[in-house]
Amino acid sequence: MRGKQAGMDIKKKKEKKPSGKNISSVVQLKNGSFSLAVTAIVLAIIVVVNLIIGQLPSKLLNWDLSETGIFSVSDTSKELLKDLDKDVTVEVVAETGNIDSRIEKFISIYGDLSSKLKVSYVDPVLHPEILTKYGISANSVVVSCEETGKNQVISFSDIIVSQQNYYGYSSESEFDAEGQLTSAVAAVTSDNDKKIYMLRGHGESAISQELGELLTKNSMTTSNLNLLETASVPDDCDLLIINNPTSDLGTDEYTELHNYLYQGGNVLLLRGVTDKELTNFDELMEDYGMTMVNSYIGDRDRYYQRAQSAFYFFPVITSNDTNVETTSSILVGAVAGMTASENTPDDVTLTTLLTTSNNAFREGNSNEATQFILAASAQKAAPTDTENESELESGSDTAETEKTSTESVSEEASTENASEEVTSEAASEAESTEESTLEDVLTDISVGNTDGWLETPSADSKLTVISASTMIDSSLIGNFTGIENLNEFINIVSSYFDDVQNVSIPAKSLSVTYNTVTGSSIWNSLFIIIIPIFSIVAGLVVWIRRRKA
Question: What is the pTM of this model?
C-alpha cells in the first residue's frame, strides 16, 4: 500500500502546472487569428463592394455639386433619349489625357441614359484616319447614326465657350455639353430637316445669334427671302418668319403672301408699335381673325416692380400644348397688342397664347382696363369636298341664269351692234396702239396686280402673330435670368411641325465660381477629419481597456 501511494505521489510531482505566461500566449494567438480572419473578411467585402460600385452607372456615382448644375441632365434630354429608336455613336476624338474632365464626366453621365447610345474614345495620334473620315480636327465629338447616314461634329470650343473681355483676355463663359449633344442626337436620328425663311425688305429686325443657335439645335436652317427679288415663296419653305417689320408690304408681295397661306403655308409674324399703319399686314391678320392695336400696352397688375413701369410686365401664359408651363415667367416691354376680330371668319380657329391681365391699358388711355392679346395662333381650314360641291352647284346655277339673260339681251341688241361694229373696231384698234404713260405704270405698281388672287384656300394654313416682338430681343433677354422667352418662342416655332419637338437647351453659365469648396466641404470634413478622428479615438479606447485587463 505504501509503495502504491508513493508511486502516485511521484506522478503528481512530475505533473507541471501551466504557467501564466503560457496562458497569455494562447489567448493572444486566438485573438490574433480572430483579428486576421476579421481583417481578411473586411478586405474581401471592400473588394467586392468596389467591384459592384464600379459597375454602377455614372449618374449614380457622380453628384453634381456645381452652382449652375452643369452635370445635370434636363427632362427634355432624358425624354428624347428614352424614346430613342436608332443606335447612335458618340466618338470623342482627342489625345488620351487631353480631354477636359468636365466634358469627359458629362459624356459619361449622358451615355448611361440610353442603351442606344455608344460612347467611345479615339486618339487621333494613334488613329489619324478618323480626322480625314469626318474632315475634322482633334478635340471634337462626332455624333453619328448609321441608320440615317447622318453625323454632327461638335468642337470642344462649342461645349466650353470662351469670351473675350475688353482687355483681350479670354475666360470661360458657358458650358453647353447637354445642348450640343441633345441637338446632335436629335439631328442625326431625324429624317426631316426644316427650312425657315426670314422675310426681308420691310425694315425687319434680325434675330439674335443665340436664337439662331437654338433654331440650329432643332435641326432648322434659316435663309433670307426678299419677295421683290424672288417672285414667290420657295417650295422648300416650311415656315416663313417676319420679324418686326417697320414698313408695309407692297401689294404684289401681299398677294404672294396671301396665296402662299391659302395654299397651305405657315407664317409667323412678330409685330411692334410703328409710326405708320401697315395696312396690308393688318388685312392679313384680319383674314385670320386678329385685329392689330398699334399702341404701347401697359399692365397694372403684372408689371415688373423694379422697372417701376406698367409697360414692362409678365404676360399671362394660357394653358395649352404650345406654351411653356403656366408657372414660368416671360418678360416683355414696350409691346403692341391685339384683339380678336369682331367678325372672325367661320373657317378660322383662333387660339390665344399670351395675354395681359384684365387691367391693361393703351398708352394715353390710363382709364382703360381691359385684356389684350399678345400672341395668338390662327388656323384656317380649307373647304371640305361637300362645301366645294355646294359652291360649284351654286355657281353653275348662277352661270346658267346669267347665260339665259345674256342670250336674251344679245338677241335684242344684235341690230344695234351691227350698226356700231365698224366704229367699235376702229376705237379698239386705236386703244390697242396707244402706249401706256409713265403715270399709268406707276399707278399699276402702286395698286398692284391682283391677277391670281386666291379667293378660297386649297389647303389648311396657319398664321401665328406675336405683337410683343421684344420677347426675343437680345437686350431684354441678356439682362434677365430665369425667364422663358426664348424657350416659348422655340415652342411656338416647333408647334408648326408634328415631327419636331423643342430640344433646344440653353447653355449653362460658367461665369460664376464652381461650388466645389462649399458644396463638397461636408464630405471632405467627413472623410478627412471626422472618420479618422473617430477611428483614432475608438482605437485608443480599445487599447486602454486591454491594458487595464
Answer: 0.66
